[in-house]
Specification:
Helix content: 25-40%
Shape: flat
Strand order of the largest sheet: 3-6-2-17-18-1-19
Largest sheet: 7 strands, parallel
Length: 640
């Protein structure tokens, strides 16, 4: 990452960056005259480099307001990649679908709460928050109210289960069997699981009588502990569990030294007005007794008027990005113009002749070339393609992704992205919450019915008989009850759910139920292992014969292969990359290939086949693609 550090250092030392940093400092020193800047001609991902460099120069709190949610997600991703160790907060709206108020997405509420909690409790360096107009439209709980509403629990203190139960329900938490999303809790004897809105993993609190014996962060997918902690703050839902007079705009929660970056102030106002009108229409359709999450937000009218947002922005240092300044249009003569003469990354349309000419022209004109790619293998491909084409190209590789490339004429820097060079789709990544389908063990437990057969890895096949609370050394814990032969009982702790699975066998055939403590299951596993070894020995002999047969050894990949593989629209998954590599290694050996590639529909098997077919064709060999149906043949022909 040395090249990236050098690049960011160039922007940090840039006089334009220092000018913005001084303006932010002066705004804090003189709150009555906050500074305003207009950054003109900022193209591509340059905005993220300017913000990152400004943060390094003055680590205040920075809020970036993008055009819309997609734009915000790409900016957040780029900033996250520019900072090696710092978390860039994404502040979304609460709802599952933008401009639809019917369903509140709990994970979005968690991200909002997490951001507010971090910003209001940040004691050292400031935070960087990326958001968009629709997210600013909703109010959040005032920091003072939020701090007073936290449920603080620490090791060694007394905790009454009935009291915590009442408080959690009052704060809008739902009681479930097993937690998997924010706003849920479960109580199983002396174990209390709580998924707070202020943390992306749930907490497990274990009691000894009424004393907190341990607090752990755990993974809801497998119920296994991640780490022990000494104290925890449980934060309620900041969107639905507070009154209107307890809520403020996000701007009211930000520190005094916050710098607000806005791509288009007029766009912000227009989108806020659209949301305000739609929210008002939706609120009119609600019944007074509607208690859904979205209705709670609407009944409280917990959203902000567009003109209020603008007035609150006026109290901070503002950096606008665009051709003209909204504040200048409104008569503010104190806006400082800073020019960033730049242009977007040229379109090469996968044409390496054009790319090579452009990079060489940049070098001749004193412009330093940087190529950004998320996959290090792409860098190797670039070097091999340039080498095969005998192109003497000078560029600096950076193994991280930015959304859009740009050329900064003033600093003489060209930052190109591999996905734009190859016209590939670049998908942003946002932190995702857990879902019911992901929590496999918990889902299994929910789906099991008494009488269903299950397999325990240590004890064999038994019958599921439900959940039961049992006393273990004075601790009341919930366990899975399994019935074995002669009505022997086995209790499996919820911490050992990964050891059991639903029995899978021949349809309609009743499995043999084993007796606990006998050697039958152990002997069966031993016999099975021996049979597997026997089969393996036979396969080894078979493969030895095949290896002795003569086949065609294809040559290593050349630049045409690299160019083809770089031009696929989507980035390979790790499994696709491994399958492709294994196939090509087989093709380069001197004996016939014998390989099966398995994967569900849509998992990318055809892309692997295309790479292998192309490798054969480049070496002058013909390729036959056989498929089971006419329609599939037509689809494959079109794809190839």
């Amino acid at each position: 990452m040395k090249n990236l550090e050098q690049l960011l250092e160039l922007y940090r030392k840039d006089e334009r960056t220092k000018l913005i940093a001084r303006g932010i400092e002066q705004s804090v020193a003189n709150a009555d005259e906050p500074k305003r800047f207009l950054l003109q001609d900022v193209k591509g991902g340059l905005e993220s480099f300017v913000l990152a460099a400004t943060y390094y120069e003055i680590p205040a709190c920075h809020l970036f307001v993008a055009i819309d949610k997609e734009d915000a997600a790409y900016v957040q991703n780029t900033l996250n990649n520019l900072f090696e160790k710092k978390t860039i907060h994404f502040f979304p709206d609460s709802f599952k679908r933008p401009q639809e108020f019917k369903t509140v997405e709990n994970h979005n509420v968690l991200l909002r709460t997490e951001t507010v909690n971090k910003v209001t409790n940040s004691k050292a360096r400031g935070e960087i928050i990326v958001t968009y107009p629709e997210a600013l439209f909703e109010k959040v709980v005032a920091p003072k109210v939020l701090n007073e509403s936290k449920i603080e629990i620490q090791n060694g203190e007394s905790l009454d289960v009935d009291t915590i139960l009442e408080v959690l329900i009052e704060y809008g938490f739902s009681r479930v069997d097993f937690v998997f999303e924010p706003g849920q809790f479960s109580i199983r004897g002396g174990i209390i699981d709580i998924f707070s809105y202020g943390n992306d993993m749930p907490y497990r609190i274990e009691l000894f009588d009424d004393e907190v014996e341990s607090i752990r962060v755990f993974n809801p997918l497998d119920q296994l502990s991640l780490k022990k902690i000494s104290r925890v703050s449980i934060i309620p839902n900041i969107q639905t569990e507070f009154r209107q007079n307890q809520k403020v705009s996000l701007f009211k929660t930000l520190p005094e030294n916050t710098a607000i970056w806005i791509k288009d102030v007029q766009n912000l106002i227009d989108r806020l007005q659209i949301w305000f009108d739609k929210a008002a229409d939706f609120a009119d359709t609600l019944q007074e007794d509607d208690t859904t999450e979205s209705a709670k937000i609407m009944h409280e009218r917990a959203f902000i008027l567009p003109n209020v947002v603008v007035n609150e922005v006026l109290n901070q240092a503002v950096i606008e990005l665009g051709k003209s300044s909204y504040f200048e249009f409104k008569g503010d003569v104190g806006v400082r113009h800073i020019k960033y003469p730049s242009k977007p990354q040229p379109s090469f349309n996968k044409n390496f002749a054009l790319l090579i000419k452009d990079l060489n022209d940049n070098t001749e004109n004193g412009i330093t070339n940087y190529i950004f790619t998320e996959n290090p293998r792409q860098i190797e491909r670039f070097y091999r393609i340039f080498e095969d084409l005998q192109a003497n190209v000078v560029f600096h590789p950076i193994s991280t992704a930015i959304h859009k490339g740009f050329i900064d004429k003033q600093l003489k820097i060209a930052c190109y992205t591999d996905h734009q060079i190859f016209d590939r789709f670049h998908k942003y990544k946002l932190k995702q919450g857990f879902t019911k389908s992901q929590a496999l063990n918990i889902k299994l437990l929910r789906e099991l019915q008494p009488g269903d057969y299950v397999t325990h890895i240590d004890h064999g096949v038994g019958k599921y008989s439900g959940l039961e609370k049992i006393d273990i050394n004075g601790h009341i814990q919930e366990a899975v009850r399994l019935i074995y032969k002669d009505n022997d009982l086995l209790y499996v702790s919820i911490n050992s759910l990964h050891k059991i699975s639903k029995y899978v066998g021949k349809e309609g055939k009743t499995p043999k139920v084993y007796k606990l403590g006998s050697d039958a299951w152990t002997n069966l596993k031993s016999r099975t292992k021996k049979k597997v070894k026997d089969i393996a020995a036979e396969l080894i002999k078979l493969y030895a014969k095949r290896k002795a047969a003569k086949g065609h050894a294809f040559p290593p990949d050349n630049w045409m292969q690299y160019e083809l593989e770089s031009s696929f629209i989507y980035e390979d998954t790790p499994d696709q990359a491994k399958a492709t590599q294994d196939v090509k290694e087989d093709m380069e050996k001197g004996y016939p290939m014998d390989r099966l590639i398995c994967g569900d529909v849509g998992f990318g098997k055809t892309e692997v086949a295309i790479r292998a077919a192309f490798k054969a064709a480049v070496d002058g060999k013909q390729v036959a693609v056989l498929v089971p149906t006419t329609i599939l043949a037509l689809q494959h022909a079109k794809t190839f």
